[in-house]
Amino acid sequence: xxxxxxxxxxxxxxxxxxxxxxxxxxxxKVKNLAASEKRxxxxxxxxxxxxxxxxxxxxxxxxxxxxxxxKYFDVDIxxxxxxxxVAREVEPIFAKNGFVVASNASAFRMEEDVPLVIPEVxxxxxxxxxxxxxxxxxxxxxxxxxxxTTIILVLSLKPLxxxxxxxxxxxxxxxxxxxxxxxxxxxxxxDNIIPFIKNEExxxxxxxxxxxxxxxxxxxxxxxxxxxxxxxxxxxxxxxxEAVWVTFExxxxxxxxxxxxxxxxxxxxxxxxxxxxxxxxxxDRPQPxxxxxxxxxxxxxxxxVRKSLEKELKYIVLGHNVVRGxxxxxxxxxxxxxxxxxxx
Length: 344
Ligand SMILES: NC(=O)c1ccc[n+]([C@@H]2O[C@H](COP(=O)([O-])OP(=O)(O)OC[C@H]3O[C@@H](n4cnc5c(N)ncnc54)[C@H](OP(=O)(O)O)[C@@H]3O)[C@@H](O)[C@H]2O)c1
Description:
Elements lengths: L2 E6 L4 H9 L6 E7 L9 H4 L10 H4 L15 E4 L3 H13 L3 E4 L15 H4 L5 H9 L4 E4 L3 H10 L7 E10 L11 H4 L10 H12 L2 E2 L4 E2 L4 E8 L6 E9 L5 H9 L14 E4 L7 H4 L8 E8 L4 E8 L3 H17 L5
Parallel strand pairs: 1-2, 1-3, 3-4, 4-5, 6-9, 11-12
Antiparallel strand pairs: 6-10, 7-8, 10-13, 12-13
The protein binds NADP nicotinamide-adenine-dinucleotide phosphate.
The site of NADP nicotinamide-adenine-dinucleotide phosphate has 29 residues, from helix 1, helix 4 and helix 12.
């Protein structure tokens, strides 16, 4: 089983992780790369300002970059790491032309007929693909993954849903790589914390309800919980840390919550980690430098699970924002689509 894939926004922070994570992938082979117009006709290795610690994968160095136009793509699947405003124009053109688009961008995440998927949480939302194809009359389709902060939060909430969640409060400490390249100016972030990330709180609060909602045969019935987020940029390179408070319908013990976290099962997909949630019991974990690469960046790490106010627990969750929160999330979605027969 082999599928040809292309990457849009291949020179960016997320695009580079696509290039890296798809090296030697058992199902997907990268054929085409695109970024902004000034790159067209040039070699990827000469254009990209490579940010990842290992070298640029050999296969990608000499690939000639193509225009952002379906006729230059000889692939089955498109991975999109475009800015939202570009994605809004470009992704439908690819979907109309029969491509499967696995997107990181926020442009279509909240559209009624577009699946917003984390495979271990709501794989059945892929059933929206049929709705989307019939509503829009496209030969292809768009499937999205959530915002990075949301993915990390929701993976930790999923196993707690059976206890009856009433509301969730989250304070994020988000890495610099989440802002893309060149991101936040060094003189603004050094020795500092910036307590505002544009549109981030709204994304966390709305996307969470869609992902934890139920597919009713035609649309998603959003989860009936309340979420309040406060998002902050901190001087960390990779890895978002989130302090979470969850209020339940009833008392939930720390040990029951830990057992639930550890029971979230990985799927049998090439990019799945061995453990979805790793629980650390040390008092000072998780930490970005120590824990962001857990499960090659595809696990999330939970720690400091403890009692809070009445019927409430609090904990810290951490995940690699560009791997589990972006490129790895789209790749996992595409693997799931292959496994479930959505891609010929
Ligand atoms: N960084 C994260 O942790 C993260 C997590 C989840 C989701 N996302 C989402 O993923 C997307 C990419 O984020 P990023 O952090 O990788 O951003 P980035 O580092 O700024 O990269 C943007 C990419 O898009 C290309 N691009 C920009 N304008 C373009 C245009 N007009 N036409 C064609 N290509 C254009 C850039 O190409 P050039 O190099 O040629 O300019 C670059 O390859 C965004 O929608 C973001 O919200 C990011």
